[in-house]
Amino acid sequence: MIEIKYHKGFVPTYPVDKKSFEDKTHREFPYAQKDNYYALCPICENPVILLGLKKTILNKKPHARHTKYDVEGISDFEEIKYEKCPNHKKTSNYILETRNETAESIELYHLARENFDKIIYLIRQHLPIIISTNDAKKLLKYFITHKGWTYPNANEHNLWLMFFRHNAWN
Ligand SMILES: [Zn+2]
Questions:
Q1: Where is the domain boundary, 65, 93, 121?
Q2: Domain membership flag for residue 67
Q3: Cα(35) to centroid of ligand 1, in Å?
Q4: In angstroms, what is the span from residue 25 Cα to ligand 1's centroid?
Q5: Does any domain span residue 169?
Q6: Residue ranges making up the domain that contains 19
Q7: What is the 89 CA–ligand 1 centroid distance (Å)?
Q8: Residues 13, 54: Cα–Cα separation, whole Å
Q9: How far is the CA of 3 from the centre of ligand 1 (A)?
Q10: Consecutive 10-residue averages of pLDDT for the chain (170 residues)
């Protein structure tokens, strides 16, 4: 995954990069441990290891991967949440860029506005996190600010997932 967060709950997400890691953690425990850097998956809140920050990986940008083990001070590894996590699927690593508005994207926009309750219901069904009414409002606000309906691969079936595809909770 290419976005992480440093605390549990509805907090900003950040790209995996050196500067933001240093700003947010001052390279201190629990984020820096032995030879590794850690943070949290923004969706399932399992621990993630940050790759490509300490040592550059050839031909690969820095990114994060679920650890599948407990990380002291960060979080225990919870397998059920991990299995349900959309970030666990390979396709979720695609680069987040908005595309231009098209007739199709405008249709998606209207679909999202008219079915917001259903979308929140779907999110609650699919994702292992608790979403309060207030959180739902925040999600909608970010979705609109970042034009979630214009993300690549957005379609009527995965529209609910696009509420988490905002590049910029930072
Ligand atoms: Zn996850």
A1: 93
A2: yes
A3: 22
A4: 20
A5: no
A6: 3-93
A7: 9
A8: 20
A9: 10
A10: 89 90 96 95 93 84 92 95 78 53 89 90 80 85 82 80 57
159, 138: one domain: yes
The DSSP line for 40-105 is E-TTT--EEEEESSSSPBTTB--EEEE-SS-BTTTB---HHHHHH-GGGSGGGGS--------HHH
Given this model, what pLDDT does residue 48 score?
97
| 170 inside domain | no
Q: How far is the CA of 127 from the centre of ligand 1 (A)?
A: 10
Same domain, 53 and 80: yes
Q: How far is the C-alpha of 106 from the C-alpha of 77, rounded, in Å?
A: 39
